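note to self — DONT lose this again. spent like an hour looking for the file last time. sequence + predicted structure for the chain T wanted, 155 res
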Amino acid sequence: MKKHYSSVVSRAFGKFAAKEFSAPVQKIINNSYVKLMGLDMSNFEPANTYSSLGKLFIRKMKKEPTIDAVRDSVISPCDARVIDFGTIKNHTAYQIKGMAYNTNSLIGAHNEESFSLLEGGAYVNLYLSPKDYHRYHMPFDVRVLSVMHIPGKLY
């Protein structure tokens, strides 16, 4: 059986990133991360102003981006790369690390009504790399009706 290590690696990185080191050490960590990942920090506070790598990772923009919305366009909610898109068939969305996944388990749908709402709908898989800006934005006016945590493997 193939082991799935991404959750372990993610947890370990999360613990390291949450730790606040002394200012000189944190400056080295943050500046090294920026250089290693090739981050464009022009719309953010300088790397050495963040008290942990985690805070640098979820840094806030100084100025919100201007969105030029065209009626028939799709605007990404995050700084990510599209790795797959398509139509949900048989409750399946494809191409998360080359594998097909059941949409109901991915989004936590647990009743027949939710299942039927997804079938025939569109999906987009976005890859958010370690160098990407890690905040999500709604590119249109929206009211969030609910938020849920879905336990399981990280993909």
